[in-house]
Amino acid sequence: MRWGLILSGLLACLSPSMGRAAATADVSSAAGPSELGLWLSGGKDGVFSIERCGSNGNALCGKLVGMDYDGEMPKDTWGRAECGLWMLTDFVPVEDHKWGGHILDPRSGRVYQAYIWLSEPNVLKLRGYVLGMPLLGKTETWTRYTGGAFGAQCKMPPQPH
Q1: Contact 105, 18 (CB under 8 A)
Q2: 134: CB partners within 8 A, 6+ apart
């Protein structure tokens, strides 16, 4: 199952929202936030690279760098390849160890508000929601990616079941 289907399922009950989270803290630690790195999606069919972004490097963004798919490269609603697509954008600290930003559903083109946070050292929680109300959302659990290198066009190596 491709990551886009998982994201669509995650956000199926949500409607689009373009709200912005306010930046409330500086993230200038030398080592960087623990959220940085490669993360395997809850459905184990997509890997995201979470990196610093923003003009001062004070935000986090995530792009899809690995996918489990057959046939042609999956494309978003605008016909762009999902490989390398920035789907998590503008995540800024909103409270202790929690980041608020936006997540793109590549199949619908809708953008949702979201939080990310570490629940354990190698476990990242992502909660997408609408209308500025996290209660109107759903949480997915991602794990730190420790698998092999990606093939051509973001193709993930086979995962053990």
Answers
A1: no
A2: 115, 127
- Please enumerate, as own/partner, the contacts of 107-111 that have beta carbons within 8 Å and a separation of 24 or more: 107/4, 107/5, 107/7, 107/8, 107/76, 107/77, 108/8, 108/11, 108/16, 108/77, 109/76, 109/77, 109/78, 110/11, 110/14, 110/15, 110/16, 111/16, 111/17, 111/18
Q: Whole-model pTM?
A: 0.77
State the Cα angle at 72 between 67 and 75, rounded to 5°. Answer: 70
Helix-, strand-, coil-residue percentages of the chain, each rounded to 5: 5, 45, 50
Tokens at 50, concatenated: 């979470």
Asked if pLDDT for residue 2 goes beyond 90, the answer is no
Residue whose tokens read 């690279």: 49
